Structures
1.
Amino acid sequence: MRTTTKRQVKKEIQNKLKRCNFCSEIVLAEAKKCKHCGEFLDPKLRTSPLPEQKWNPVTVALFSLLVPGGGHIYRGKPVKGFLWLIFVAVGYRFYLFPGIFLHLISIIFALIGNQTKE
Ligand SMILES: [Zn+2]
């Protein structure tokens, strides 16, 4: 009668576990949040999702590349973008190296800066 016991245990385990809808990893059936991908499994808890990423990183990088601070302006931060524009322009005005360096920094900042909320 060992097989029956084994099956019962297996069934019991299956009842306690389920697959995450988002990453397909096995999580506890009563889990409200997936420990693997961090998604909320309980729909009630998903009422306040993170703000959608409205901007495209490639577009931000391109804008920043063409116009220093352009990425910031594109992401709805004209003041920051304008400051970066001046900053990079001053860098270019005096020496080429700091200009390129600041330009690259501005692109990186445009991409990583305040991703969650402004
Ligand atoms: Zn998951």
2.
Amino acid sequence: MNDESRHCLCIPATPEDLPIKILDVNIVGNHVAGQFAVLFQQTLDFSTDASLALSRAETLLLYAWQELNTGKWSDVNFNWHKLYAAVSWLKAVATFRCRTTGESSTPPEVWLDIIKICDMGHLMGGDVWEGILLRTISAAEAKISELSPAVFAEPQRKKRTETVTICDVLHPIEELDRPSLAHFQAAFLRLKRPLMLKGILETWPALSKWSPEYVRSICGSRTVPVELGKRYTDEDWGQELMTISAFIDKYIYMLDNPDKKIAYLAQHDLLSQAPLLRDDISMPDYIAFAGDDDPDMNAWFGPEGTVSPLHHDPKDNFLCQVFGEKYVRLYEESESEKVYPHESTMLFNTSQVDVEDPDLERFPKFAEAVFSDCILRPEKLAG
Ligand SMILES: O=C(O)CCC(=O)C(=O)O
């Protein structure tokens, strides 16, 4: 492997620069720790057969995957996450060794696969070895744009045709045009009522730049979790990991999707995954007054017709619309009983009522529940 490829894959000058003892044997067991050590040596010793390292990496990933998906995600010991992340990077290196001859230049498809493998590692495991997965992804992205500039070319905004009728607003949420911070604090935080803020996002470059094609050009090769189905409360709802590019083709442009199945890239920390998108927005000052020093920042990206069922979040929310429009309905906490929260522990924060078509025989009190509503368009922000 030449120096440039080693550099792109973040392989240190000497293997000793990567600590091998990162796992607690008491948690992962002697066998897994032993297999990990062999994989580590095999992958970074370029005189060995890389296909052996690759199949050992696959086996270890499967093992770690099972551990990660047994029981509650929050109860999984962090050693399993670390194992998944570290093995993913070793798999990326082994894949590169299997797919390249060392003589001709590496085709962009190989770098795209490296990004996929590292993204999976990062999604499931976080990161190890000082952010090696994200560093490898950045280097691979740079390599792709150098080899094949068209993949990341500056896009044209594609025209979309709206066909979904959006609900009528019945009890409009109060609108404020750039309120002072003091006014905002009094109106929203003290009275605890929702507000629609106007004129706040005007300076965001995202408003003029973002479109499906722009997002594709920035992070089309990145893997993200996608919710399949119209609502997460539906029986046939599921989740899948796919690249953003595949998501845009199949679920935004509905290519190769004859039944027009709906999917939603929902509640995902996309802006950390794609820092260039993060540069197109700025945190509204009002957030500093919401008493959260470390706010979560999630993105929702979907086709027309996607629905987030009526639910409650543990934190206050600022919902900003950058593209398209969205009907939002809010119920006060005092109305909880009338919106019939699910009884299961998984969905306890979600209403059983389909707001668009409520079954008033099953949920009679829903008819009396008091709500406020609005349509969010790119220039407005609901707090
Ligand atoms: O925009 C959406 O579809 C849902 C947003 C949401 O659930 C939230 O802000 O908590």
